Amino acid sequence: MEQHLQDIPVRDLKIKAFDLWDKDWLLLTSGDYSKGKFNAMTVAWGSIGNMWNLPFALVVVRPTRYTFEFINSYPSFSLCGFPEEYRKALNIMGTKSGRDSDKLSESGLTATKSEMIAAPVFEEAELVIECRKIYIEDFNPTHFIDDRIDKNYPNKDYHRMIFGEILTVRGLEKKYASK
Ligand SMILES: Cc1cc2nc3c(=O)[nH]c(=O)nc-3n(C[C@H](O)[C@H](O)[C@H](O)COP(=O)(O)O)c2cc1C
After folding, report:
1. How far, in Å, from the CA of 90 to the mean position of ligand 1?
2. Of 42, 95, 136, which is best to mutate to test ligand 1, by the most ligand atoms within 8 angstroms of its C-beta?
3. For the segment 129-150, what is each residue's pLDDT rounded down to a tens digit?
């Protein structure tokens, strides 16, 4: 378990709303750690907020990702943030597929049991967010109002949005706790 991390009440989570995603990146993992069946990939698009009066994390996964199969089949997912020294590991997890390589071993990251969900988290993480899926929706290209959006989909592999209720958060207190 990530010994150095503190439990952070969800409402006290302090993040930079944009940097957390597009600068720092997160590792999205779904599956069942106890069964040895899970997959992880780097994500930079998504959000954290309030919906249906529940704290949520939203991730978007293209159907071409191996992780897509896991996040569709299993009820939970985790999001992990890492210190800068793991940038190379996140690059591996975001450019290779678990479908045809053991990218996790190559990355050097260590999966470990979560507290509340079946999907694992990672020992090296400095931020751990455990989520239970509550809503999915596929982007519908007929609803794209701005032309810039469609340019992201030359192969028409529109993302699936997956909302997860945030069940628990652990992190470096100094960086991620507002009090
Ligand atoms: C910085 C970065 C951010 C990414 N963000 C996303 C994302 O938000 N959604 C997505 O579907 N793919 C995203 N990707 C691509 C996947 O991480 C990549 O295709 C990965 O190899 C999929 O692995 P898998 O096939 O094992 O699931 C991102 C890649 C990088 C490098």
Report:
1. 10
2. 42
3. 999 999 999 999 999 999 999 9
